[in-house]
Amino acid sequence: MIDNDLYKQHLDSLAGMDKFIRAEVAFRIDLANSALKRGISLTRTTQMLYQDLALGRVRNKKIASSIALKFYKKQREAYGATDGFEPTYLGDVPDQWLFEDFKKTLVAHKDGTNVDFDGMKNALGGRMAHYALKAVDATIIGNAQRDPLHPKWAFVPHIGACAWCIMIGSRDFDFKSEKTASAERHPGCTCPVVADFDTKNPHLEGYDPEGMCARFKGIAELLGIDGHSDEDWHRMVKEAEFFDREWLRTGKPFTPTYESKEAEAFKAKDPDHPLEFRTATAMAKRGLAAVFRIDEVQDPKNKGITYGYADLVSGVEIKNLSTAGSEQTVDKHAQRTKKKRGFKRVCFDFSENEGFTDERARAAVAQAVRNRNLNGAYMVNHKGEIEFIPHSK
User: Fold this and answer.
1) What are phi and psi of 53, to 5 degrees?
2) Is the pTM of this model over 0.70?
């Protein structure tokens, strides 16, 4: 078991490292911008900036080394290891990585002889922090591979982690190589890699890999796939974008909510909102994100024009079809829905429609999906359960 206080200290250290590196990069970029304004050529300025960043990477290496080794050694001590194994720093990234990223960032923020240095801060700061975090990963994993105690390691999604990270985290303390752990870290990811020396019962408070795996399997069932192939996993991750992240991570139940107080006040004036809220409640029970937004926005330059948006922040438009009497009605809703801004998916609610059986409703939604070339649709059946209707020929 990983000591929770030790883990929290490690997270604080990682957060401090990230903040320091980003601030350092911003400072170096400000110096470059100042040099350019003083008349130093753009070529020379960018060369100086790259040299500063290269030196910064060396400094960051020392920070990453200190954090990784401190965490690893304290874990060994807590476990009571007395075998004399001495962990060493094993993390680094090739110079070519920084060079290529610097070139790409410069090109993306350069317009002729002008450079948007402020715009480069977040991009380069994020990349430099990413390098350091991968160095921490490599040190923890590399030592775990060499350690005679053979600790297990895991990728732990933090609060707010994306669907990809949660999927990786669902694999538990079961990684066999660095390739299957930190190598899958995406740019901007700050989820930590941890090692546990209690190999028979590895555990970290708040980390629920079995639950995460079960919830992803639930997505596979919703999609009608077995979820075993890489292609299936990528489909599941893509579908997970419609699900509540914290529910995916922890399984904690939630209820529909609003993006802001203004959105709540706006929706309170809509006579159809109680029905929308009921549908959103059914979605939330299934783990689907249910955050309402203001779905009608006036053009600031022309108050006579109003733009319609999807009901939910996730891009889902809710259509309650309790009074729909024909397949044509379903199709028309699909046609209008597709035109809304931010639209990604529609959810048709037939739960209180006495004229449609579930079988007829599925057929009507499937036909509308084909007619309007939608990427599938959700449907609430008469049991109040969410179904997924795919696009099929």
Assistant:
1) -65, -40
2) yes
Structure tokens at 250: 């922890």
The answer to whether 11 and 17 are in contact (CB under 8 A) is: no
Containing H/E element for 348? strand 345-349
Tens digit of each residue's pLDDT (9 = 90 or more) over 277-334: 999 999 999 999 999 999 998 888 887 788 999 999 999 999 999 999 999 999 999 9
Spell 229-258 as b/e; 16+ CB within 10 A means b.
Answer: eeebbebbbebbebbbbbbbbbeeeeebeb
CATH of domain 257-390: 3.40.1350.120
C-alpha span between 232 and 242 (Å, rounded): 16
CA dist 323 and 351 (Å) reads 11
Token pair of 33, please? 């911008």
Confidence of residue 183 (pLDDT cuts 50, 70, 90): low
Tell me if 268 sits within 8 A of 311, measured CB to CB.
no
CA distance 377 to 379: 7
Q: Where are the domains positioned within the chain?
A: 4-149, 152-190+205-244, 257-390
CB atoms under 10 Å from CB of 326, counted, come to 11
